[in-house]
Amino acid sequence: MKYTNAQSIASVLNELWEQNPKMADKLAETRLITYWNTMSPAITRYTAGLFVKNRTLYVSLTSAVLKNELMMRREQLCLTLNKEAGRKVIDTIVFH
């Protein structure tokens, strides 16, 4: 049997993401959270929880010192996280 309309898996998945942007956004959010958890052991050690809601990343930290440091780097973190996710997933980060 010969396939004349063969496509790579990557092209099929890209087409699927284009047809369903909400699914693509959820995948990008998952990539963003996965990247956060692998960024730095010093950060992940003090991260109690994180989630994305309404284009905002909510991060719960157990260290006030780390919270202050990350608040100063908030804009750079947004850029880095969006780049790692492959699309603009978040507009801002809220630390609590």
Walkthrough of the structure:
There is one protein chain. With 96 residues, the protein is an alpha+beta fold. It has one domain (9-95). The chain has 5 helices and 3 strands; from the N terminus they run αααββααβ. The chain has a 3-stranded mixed β-sheet. α1 (9-19) crosses α2 (21-39) and α2 crosses α5 (74-85). The N and C termini lie far apart (59 Å).
Unreliable stretches: none
Number of strands: 3
User: By helix and strand content, what is the structural category?
Assistant: alpha+beta
Q: Note the overall shape.
A: elongated
Please count the helical segments.
Answer: 5
Strand percentage: 15-25%
Order of helices and strands: HHHEEHHE
Helix content: 55-70%
Tell me the strand order in the biggest sheet: 1-2-3
Mean pLDDT, as a whole number?
90
Tell me the distance between the termini: 59 Å
Main sheet properties:
3 strands, mixed
Please tell me how large the radius of gyration is: 17 Å
Count of folded domains: 1
Give short descriptive properties of this protein.
single chain, 96 residues, alpha+beta, 3-stranded mixed β-sheet, elongated
How do the helices and strands line up, and which of them pair or pack?
Layout lengths: L8 H11 L1 H19 L1 H5 L1 E7 L2 E6 L2 H9 L1 H12 L6 E4 L1
Parallel strand pairs: 2-3
Antiparallel strand pairs: 1-2
Gist of the model:
The protein has 96 residues and is of the alpha+beta class. It has helices at 9-19, 21-39, 41-45, 64-72, 74-85, and strands at residues 47-53, 56-61, 92-95. The radius of gyration is 17 Å and the shape is elongated.
